[in-house]
């Protein structure tokens, strides 16, 4: 995408396949330009500045950083930034970089509840114009070790591409016994709120 965009162009500042598919399936016209931000460095800074910072705030700050970075590169565009944080009690979990760590993450989540916080931010000309954070609670069933190994074999490298090591829209749904919250929020984007705000701003037909 060029460094400039017209005022009607919607840009998704995320490389997430799930977010792309949600917006496309909903009929939203957009282009993709993943943000160039150092997420681990931002998280580390946030914890240094405030050790008791909430998962909601972390997700919002990361989504804001993505939206602002791409918006600064694309003046005139309408930029959507998003991020998701998984909280297991007071601990925050990140994507597992390899299969072994994904296995350990799923063992830790097994039989327990965790919360996904999904933030979305709109930005124009480098300035935030709207933000929202949704949350959903998910409870994993106490699945067996053989099931876990079979799941990892079938899911393959996908377990390293999402926080928690699962995709609810795929085989990952078999890991759960209860879900409380919005489905789209779990996938990483509070889609209903996003669509409502886009309609309110005249970006979609109302």
TrEMBL record:
A family per Pfam: Maf
Keywords: Cytoplasm, Hydrolase, Nucleotide metabolism
GO terms for cellular component: cytoplasm
Catalysed reactions, as listed in the record: a ribonucleoside 5'-triphosphate + H2O = a ribonucleoside 5'-phosphate + diphosphate + H(+); a 2'-deoxyribonucleoside 5'-triphosphate + H2O = a 2'-deoxyribonucleoside 5'-phosphate + diphosphate + H(+)
Enzyme class: hydrolase
Residues annotated as catalytic: 83 (proton acceptor)
Compartments, as annotated in UniProt: Cytoplasm
Molecular-function annotations in GO: nucleoside triphosphate diphosphatase activity
Cofactor(s), by name: a divalent metal cation
Domain of life according to the entry: Bacteria
EC number(s) on file: 3.6.1.9
GO biological process, alphabetically ordered: nucleotide metabolic process
Its job: Nucleoside triphosphate pyrophosphatase. May have a dual role in cell division arrest and in preventing the incorporation of modified nucleotides into cellular nucleic acids.
Family: Belongs to the Maf family.
HAMAP family in the record: Maf
Protein name as annotated: Nucleoside triphosphate pyrophosphatase
UniProt source species: Hyphomicrobium sulfonivorans
């Amino acid at each position: 995408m060029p460094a400039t965009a017209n005022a009607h162009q919607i840009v998704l500042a995320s490389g997430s396949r799930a977010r792309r598919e949600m917006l496309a399936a909903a009929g939203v016209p957009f282009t993709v330009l993943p943000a160039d931000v150092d997420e681990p460095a931002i998280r580390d800074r946030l914890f240094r500045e405030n050790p008791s910072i909430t998962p909601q705030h972390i997700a919002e700050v990361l989504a804001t950083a993505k939206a602002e970075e791409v918006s600064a590169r694309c003046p005139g565009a309408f930029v959507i930034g998003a991020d998701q944080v998984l909280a297991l009690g007071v601990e925050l979990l990140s994507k597992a970089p390899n299969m072994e760590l994904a296995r350990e993450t799923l063992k830790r989540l097994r039989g327990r509840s965790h919360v996904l916080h999904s933030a979305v931010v709109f930005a124009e000309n480098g300035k935030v114009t709207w933000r929202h954070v949704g949350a959903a609670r998910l409870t994993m069933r106490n699945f067996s070790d053989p099931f876990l190994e079979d799941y990892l074999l079938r899911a393959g490298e996908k377990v390293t591409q999402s926080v928690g090591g699962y995709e609810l829209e795929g085989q990952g749904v078999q890991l759960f016994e209860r879900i409380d919250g919005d489905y789209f929020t779990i996938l990483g984007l509070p889609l209903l709120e996003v669509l409502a705000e886009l309609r309110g701003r005249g970006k979609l037909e109302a």
